[in-house]
Design a protein that fits this description.
The chain is of the alpha/beta class. The protein is built from nine helices and eleven strands. The model has no long low-confidence stretch (mean pLDDT about 95). Bound molecules: phosphoenolpyruvate and manganese (II) ion (MN).
């Protein structure tokens, strides 16, 4: 079997785009999100609600996930909802809440940007910009975030191949922004018992093909609260550089994605287990 210098079998069937290729940077990239490094020895835990709903909801959740060891806070202010009649997020008000809880807790924040016209606005508040699954192939948006100076969390399109995922990342790097973290968040398959099929085989594959850090979202990847801990642990065992998980102080009252959000006790218990899994694969939870 023919192999390139990184011993990547040519049988993947496509050429890895140049800028994201592991060949360009065999040692791997470390992405620094306001002082929190993803892609090094540590495994980074990102946690928080799907959407910013209110001050109380965000602040109570954020304080708890910080206490249990989360290093970055997530929370959507602009939400990509399947139905135009569903809650669309608090918008800038949500961004303001995120920056005030950052000031209190010191946790950097990641939040989604959906529109090229809002990249500047979201970039003023966020420490990392999230490109959601539905926008992975929104090329004008990829180019726009490629021109900003904030790290980008690029989620895999729900119908995207690994090749398409890497090409989407290449769009961002091509514009000069090399601070990109890839996120496997589940893909659509014929399976209906879970919201998505979490493709954990993407983790070792991506780690081999690209130098970019790779994290996993077991919340959207399964869509089921009780499955999240098992898949979170499996992701760390598979070599993920981090996890992004939905946590809510009252998941049953959540406006968005409550059925897949961990409550605070489940999150605390999972953090304990993750430390042991990380040690078993010579990593540590950052
Ligand atoms: C989210 O993180 O809340 C989200 C909408 O994720 P995805 O784009 O993966 O569906
Ligand atoms: Mn969500």
């Amino acid at each position: 079997m023919e192999a390139n210098s990184c011993n990547v079998p040519v049988t993947v069937g496509f050429r890895v785009p140049a800028r994201v290729s592991r060949e360009t940077k065999p040692e791997g990239s470390v992405v620094n999100v306001a002082g929190v490094e993803t892609g090094g020895a540590g495994v980074v835990i990102i946690a928080g609600p799907c959407a910013v709903e209110s001050k109380e909801q965000l602040f109570d959740t954020a304080r708890s996930v910080k206490k249990e060891g989360a290093r970055i806070l997530r929370g959507g202010a602009f939400k990509p909802r399947s139905s135009p009649y569903s809650f669309q997020g608090l918008g800038e008000e949500g961004l303001i809440l995120l920056s005030s809880i950052r000031a209190e807790t010191g946790l950097p924040i990641v939040t989604e940007v959906m529109d090229p016209r809002q990249v500047d606005l979201v970039g003023e508040y966020a420490d990392m910009l999230q490109i959601g699954s539905r926008n992975m192939q929104n090329y004008p948006l990829l180019k726009e975030v490629g021109m900003c100076r904030k790290p980008i969390l690029l989620k895999r399109g729900m119908m995207a191949t690994i090749e398409e995922f890497l090409l989407a990342a290449e769009y961002i790097l091509n514009q000069g922004n090399e601070q990109v973290i890839l996120c496997e968040r589940g893909i659509r398959t014929f399976e209906t018992s879970t919201r998505n099929t979490l493709d954990l085989s993407a983790v070792p594959m991506l780690k081999r093909l690209t130098h970019l850090p790779v994290i996993v979202d077991p919340s959207h990847g399964t869509g089921i609260r009780w499955m999240v801990p098992a898949m979170a642990k499996a992701a760390v065992a598979a070599g993920a550089d981090g996890l992004i998980m939905e946590v809510h102080y009252r998941p049953d009252e959540a406006i968005c994605d409550g059925y897949q959000s961990l409550d605070l006790d489940l999150f605390a218990g999972l953090m304990t287990d993750l430390k042991r899994i990380a040690l078993a694969v010579d990593r540590k939870i950052l």
